[in-house]
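can u pls check wat happens w/ adenosine-5'-diphosphate
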Amino acid sequence: MLEVEINRKSYPDRGGQVHIALSGLSFRARRGELVCIVGPSGCGKSTLLNVVGGLDHDVDGGVTMGGVVPEHSIGFMFQEPRLMPWLTVLDNVMLVAGHTADDRRRARELLTAMELGDVLHAYPGSLSGGMQRRVALARAFVIDPVLLLMDEPFVSLDAPTANRLRNMLITLWQRCNTTVLFVTHDLREALSLGDRVCFLSGAPGQLVLDLPVKLPRPRSADDPAVLALQSELLQEHPELLAGLASGKDTGENDNA
Ligand code: ADP
Ligand code: MG
């Protein structure tokens, strides 16, 4: 069980005041659960992931997993793929993997499962945006993470590319029993991926709705059931969902 309890997370601002980014936020996630977190821009979603992942310790609160502070085997995936341009695809993944022959085999297997077997020795600069995200996804899973933190990882991709990445994520997640926190401002994406969706209010982010998503898998962002649930929610909670994206995919064209 992942337990997150944030009493208060603030940042000093330029005028010497404090800016409260999160306040009174607590939630739990079961082992292997995929929890989507949605909320308007600036409500503290990235801040929350940084705290949960231990990248930011300056917080009044705590995060435990199985009763202890999680330190190892946390995978991250951000909005930008954050690949090292001077390393090949395989070496980017090996950078976080172990150094045994087994680790190398696992990295190759994952990249092949991501349909990147032909570009193992290519450099990121020669890949499309969608391919770069697939490398980042393989890198996130190569450590067999107990916890995977994803911060709007498929934003600004065209719809087919984003759908393909979502399907790959679900396949890997179902294989690994990893707990996933997936931040997005796209409600439709959240409903198509999550076992649960946690809605945060505007700043400072507080949990305003914790919604189990009972729709059967496999799901896609275009499923009529997903669209129906989205419009039902928008009708029931218009104030809560104000400021969220309508769920339309936008962004660069990408033929990956
Ligand atoms: P979200 O990811 O939901 O868009 P963030 O977690 O990035 O929101 O930011 C929440 C609030 O905290 C915003 O008002 C942002 O300006 C502020 N903030 C984020 N990071 C910092 C920082 N390093 N220093 C000061 N303020 C920050
Ligand atoms: Mg953010």
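The domain at 1-73+180-248 is CATH 3.40.50.300 (Rossmann fold).
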